[in-house]
User: Fold this.
Amino acid sequence: MQNFVFHNPTKILFGKGTISGIGPETTVFSNKVLLVSGSGSIKKNGLHRQVTESLQNAGADIIEHPGVQSNPLLSHVRAGIKLARTHHCQVVCAVGGGSVIDEAKAICAGALVDHDVWDFFTGHKSISSALPLTTVLTLAASGSEMNCGMVITNVETSQKFGFADKFLFPRTSILDPEATFSVPADYTAYGAVDAIAHILEFYFTTADPSTPVQDRLMEGLIINAMESCDRVLADLHDYQGRADLMWTATLALNGLTGAGLGRTGFPMHMIEHSLSALYNVPHGAGLSAIIPGWMRHQSVITPGRFAQFAERVFDCRDGSVEERARMGITSLLNWFEKVHSPTSLQALHIPCQDIPRIAENALALAKVWSMSDYDIGRIQAILADC
Amino acid sequence: MQNFVFHNPTKILFGKGTISGIGPETTVFSNKVLLVSGSGSIKKNGLHRQVTESLQNAGADIIEHPGVQSNPLLSHVRAGIKLARTHHCQVVCAVGGGSVIDEAKAICAGALVDHDVWDFFTGHKSISSALPLTTVLTLAASGSEMNCGMVITNVETSQKFGFADKFLFPRTSILDPEATFSVPADYTAYGAVDAIAHILEFYFTTADPSTPVQDRLMEGLIINAMESCDRVLADLHDYQGRADLMWTATLALNGLTGAGLGRTGFPMHMIEHSLSALYNVPHGAGLSAIIPGWMRHQSVITPGRFAQFAERVFDCRDGSVEERARMGITSLLNWFEKVHSPTSLQALHIPCQDIPRIAENALALAKVWSMSDYDIGRIQAILADC
Assistant:
């Protein structure tokens, strides 16, 4: 195990009927609240009313910033920052999935500085403070509700860049599984894929050969993500399945899985971010198209790790290390197909002629993330196998 | 899954060479530091010098409160509170295992109130603030370094009582596996037993039939506790084994394993606390003497749960539910014997004539912990099987 610092101060209120807690959890910081939300589905399903009622009952003066897209846009972040400044908002409340929470984090950071918020993402500026953030989660996927990371897309430069800072942990996140009942089957599956991808990134890129505590935690979470997703796809209103999937996705990227692994990379996300930046495909769908190809490449380098994954996650006990490694990848691919998440670029209708362009875009992110072991040839080779 | 609140604000600095961080982490609160420690082993192994140097370099004015015993005593807590008040200490730094940290927590809570600190344990008073606490951990066992609980023994009343409050989370805990190199084999094993017991309490007392996320987390931690303990017992200076055992014990009782389980009990601890209160046996040794007997009783009530434990922790896949349940208990008992942790009252030299007295004492704690499903007859029956 490598040295690490673990500090996750986010408070989680989990379960049925917890949404009414958002008012007091938010106005404890200020009653000037910027309410950040998405495309309007929360108005249809009644969540918007629940949240605003709770905020108002707690004395909030609400300024609304709706319209966050999936793969949230820098231009919309800038508009949110302007709004927060104009109305002197002192706290931000995000109601939505990872995109809404990520945009809210960018607003929290950008509202307190004079320079452009994109400077954080390019590494030209660092964060020294941020507005406090509370969230009500509506999608089990990104883990953003209990971590300090965010990903924003700059359409001017076709860049989808991520950034993390300790000032960006939500103060309180409310996780009511019933708030995810209206998520359709495809996006439920993409969310589970996203959670699994977060774990796989750590699991397969650690250079430390001895991380048994983290390994068993990660293996258990992957099994839980698949089993709970299966349960939800059989009945979208299965409360226990929704609850298990929601908590699994949160734990998949709240810092615990990676603590002690030392330096890790995010190569699958690095490549996928190009897909969503260039084609606006759902993040989880892009991931499941990339994961099997990347795993096939990586398994040649660290077959023992893949054999352990196969044995512990899919109970593959027979055959050589290489055979088990392959069986693990195939088993995961079969599960992606079972939940109808795309497993190739072709399934996303992305022609192979585009590979050089995608690779070029991914390489720019590899540089920002200091992933020097990924050059253009390697990224192209992986994409050619996807 | 049941509703829960999870909020663990403790910052962990983990790994080699992290002890030098204790100074700045402590004096950020105040330079008037009460340094709480145990019986003097930290003076022999150099840790005391490391800690005081780091504190002094950070500008600390140190008041020493050494001499905390295992199963820390209320009288010694009271002396620490008096010392903290006399010298106007504004922060407490604990260097030791769970006993030292627990006593430090009691001092943090007691220093700020006029009434006796024991009133918190009997439920007559509640905590509304506490001095900030930092810790340097020297024993992988109790989890106190990342939770808000504490256990103190009142010899006047022969009571060993526990109490938890959100104000008692350490602000920062430093976990350097090398600081546990000098723990001898027997106490290393007792520490692993303690960590396993914390998990078993949750695992086998939850009334919720559907907690798959927590189950896999707990099962993985139990396996890790045993495997890392085995590794350390083969070589007390095995860094990776010490690191894995240390982080496992912390995660075993930092709130994650129990979050979502709903109401649970701590019956094995409830009974064991009587053993350490009456005979001053090491906590882990007392636990391994109680656990198999308690498990045999409980497995009749919830055999399916015990069969799952057997299957996932010990790979027992054959036989009926009842047979697998029994195999799981036997496997754990065999592991206790392998690491030379006592598995009966007899092994602790406690005569069966004492059972009524032990049960009487345990019943008092059962009342304080509101465990109404444990009457004197049930406790005696369990003890008779230990």
Notes: The first strand of chain B starts at residue 4 and ends at 6. The interface with chain A takes residues 1-18, 210, 212-213, 216-217, 219-221, 223-224, 227-228, 240, 243-244, 247-248, 251, 256, 259-260 of chain B (CB under 8 Å).
